[in-house]
Amino acid sequence: MDQSLAQDTNILQAFAKRSSSGALQLPVRFAPVYLGSDIMRYLVKARVKPGQHLALLRAIREGSLGQGSIAGDEYIYDMEQARLAEDGSAHWVETCFCATPLAEERPYWEKYFELLSVKDAHSRRDCRDLNGTEPWACSNCDCTKKLEERLQRHGSDFLESLQKQKCPS
Question: Which phi and psi (to 5°) does residue 38 adopt?
Fold first, then answer.
């Protein structure tokens, strides 16, 4: 984690409250300190690391996946939406508020996953937040709705597959 992100994280953790799952919940009035204008959605492709399937499933069930992260319950949501491709890789769309893609989330994901690719989920040129037509648009944006619908039609439910232990190692 770079130094400025670490400083922002430490400041915000001092003001954040923990949800029942242990995730940090950021008071809305502090959001602009961290979020800036670097909001983007990414298509993540990852493979569960060998021997981490049960640990990942346990973290999801216990609600501890991403515990301590400002991103809070987003990790669980991402796993609920993730799809398992025929090649054994998981795919999901993630909203990230960091200047560097997944700067906050990467250490939490890399505990369980090998991140194969992290790509813009749609054109930055068309991003309403980045082009200035709608500040903070990514929080409630539907710009990746078509991509997310297409993902749901391919592969199988990642979490269901993980629960059935059908994920390849």
Answer: -105, 35
Read off the pLDDT of residues 15-35 as tens digits, 9 standing for 90 and up. 445 555 555 444 433 333 334
Burial class, 119, CB count within 10 angstroms (exposed 0-12 / middle 13-18 / buried 19+)? exposed
168 assigned to some structural domain? no
What's 83-152 look like in SS3? EECCCCCEEEEEEECCCCCCCCCHHHHHCCEEEEEEEECCCHHHCCCCCCCCCCHHHHCCCCHHHHHHHH
Residue 16 belongs to some domain of the structure: yes
Range of the domain at 100: 3-163
- Which segments in the chain show pLDDT lower than 70? 1-39, 138-141, 166-169
The number of domains in the chain is 1
pTM of the model: 0.69
Q: How high is the pLDDT of residue 165?
A: 72
Inside any domain, residue 169: no
